[in-house]
Amino acid sequence: MLILLTNDDGIYAPGLAAIERQLRLVGEVVVVAPATEQSGVGHSITYLTPLTVKEVFHPDSRRGDKRRGWAVEGSPADCVKIGVHQFCPRRPDLVVSGINCGLNAGINVLYSGTVAAAIEGAFFGITSVAVSLEFDEHAPFDRAAELARSIIEQILAKKRPDPQLYNMNIPLAALEGRPQVCVAPMNVARYGDRFEKRRDPWGRDYYWLNGGPPTATPDHETDLSALAQGKVALTPLDYDLTRQAVLSEMQRWEFCLSNGGNEKYEG
User: Fold this and answer.
1) Number of helical (H) and strand (E) elements in the chain, helices listed first
2) Residue 260: helix, strand or coil by DSSP?
3) Domains along the sequence of the chain with CATH
């Protein structure tokens, strides 16, 4: 099995190293990751400037394989694109993005560079998994990587007929005792964002974005409620944003467009 591994915290991030060690027990791993942290960049791609890539090596010369991977001066989505096209010896069987330092659940999925990299893998028709761990200054990435590998192996064992995109979020509580996995949808409630106004030494105003969890709580299980219970939240995602029910309704609409006054367009 060939696995393309990336992240949005950068090629030197400890979460990337931890999941790489575990994934090497599953198959061959090719690492293509951003040269610097790209958190919150969403699904941006680089196309107005050249994409610079540098081969990175392990500092330990005693290793047989000294190559660490490729560091890309671009976004996580860039890494998957160029990884599939240029640096994988063949088409990958799996794309993994992570382990991110911080959860990517709820509406934050739409801002996440970690999830965007997995979505990019799904664009290629490859089963892809984004993996995120609740933030902690001394996050137990090794334990989280073991858990993530176990879940990924079980996902692959299901052998679904079509490639699927998954978002996995691991709370710190799940690493204590016997972890539970909850398959749940995204919570799409808006977070309680606010801006804190401050002033710099030159008297200029600036703002820090901060906020808390969504103010609205749905009456069904979601990724956020599962995480609050200390469970691993696993969500199947889709990048097709079309509202199918509304589409069917709109296709019956008739639009009258003014072009001299008499033209009609039928949808």
Assistant:
1) 6, 13
2) coil
3) 2-190+218-266 (3.40.1210.10)
**Region class of 111: left (phi > 0), else alpha (psi between -120 and 50), else beta:** alpha
CA distance 156 to 153: 5
Token look-up 């050249």 returns 50
CB 95 within 8 A of CB 133: no
Residue 152: burial class (beta carbons within 10 Å; 0-12, 13-18, 19+): buried
Task: Report residue 3 as tokens.
Answer: 């696995």
Q: Which is it for strands 165-170 and 128-133: parallel, antiparallel or unpaired? A: parallel
Structure confidence at residue 108 (pLDDT)? 93
- Give the contacts of 168 (CB within 8 A, at least 6 positions apart): 98, 129, 130, 131, 132, 148, 151, 232, 233, 234, 235
Among 16-25, 86-95, 140-149, 156-165, where is mean pLDDT lowest? 156-165
* CA distances, 20 to each of 15, 27, 32 (Å): 8, 10, 11
Give the tens place of pLDDT for each residue, 58-112. Answer: 776 555 567 789 999 999 999 999 999 999 999 999 999 999 999 999 999 999 9
What is the model's pTM? 0.90
